[in-house]
Structure prediction request, 224 residues.
Amino acid sequence: MTARCLYVLLLPALLAACAPAQQAQQAPVTASTSVSQVSFYPFQAGLSWNYLPDGDTQGGQPYTLKALGPSVFGSVQAQAYNLSGRGADQTSYRLISAQGVQLLGFRKPGLSVRLDPPWQEALAEGAWKVGLAWQGESNITVQSDDGRTNVSGKVNYSYRVLDQRSVSIGSQSYRVWVVNRQITDTVGGLFPASQEQWFVPYVGDVRTPEGLLLTGRNFAGGQP
Prediction:
C-alpha cells in the first residue's frame, strides 16, 4: 500500500481526533416534592394537574395547575395554586380544611384580586350529597401592583350539587359530583356567569368551572 493510500484511509480518524469534544447535554435544574398522601380537597405541595378545554384535540398544549404549598396572601397564610399554559399565569390562594374550601383571591401579572369575606367554594367533607346548596356574597377589589384600586364591587355566588354520576375523559373514568355554579358581580363579568363543575374527592376538579377537562395528573388519587 502506498503512503498516499495510507494517508487517505487515516484522514477521517485524524480529523475526528482533532475535532473539539462535544459537550454532553445537561438536564435543567428542577425542584420536586414527594407527596405521600392526598387529602379530600387536594392541596399538598408538588401535586399537579393537566387540563385541556372541552372539545380540544387530545395532545394539544395543556393548562397546568400546580399546588405550590403554604404561602401568604395579604397577611393570611393560605394554600397557593398556579395555573399556567397558553399564556395563562394565575396564582390562587385558598383556605383548605376538612370544613371546606375558601378562595381568598388570586394574582395575575400586574394585579391582585381580593375577596372579603372569602368565597366559599366547597363545604365540609361530610356534607356532599345531591341537592346540597350554598351561596354567599363577597366584596371584590382589583388592585394593580402599585397599590392603586382599579375597580371594586360585589360578587354573588351560589352552588348546587345536581348529581353524582360516572363520566369518562379519554381513557379515564371517574365518579364525579356534578355542581352548578352561578355568579353575578358588579365589576363587569369577571367570572363566567353559569358553569358546570365536576369534583372528585382525593383527585380534585376533573371539569373546572371554566370548562377545562382533566387529562393527566402526577398522583394516583382515590380514596385511601
In short: Residues 43 and 67 are 6 Å apart (CA to CA). The longest strand covers residues 149-169. The chain has one domain: 36-217. DSSP finds one helix and twelve strands in the chain.
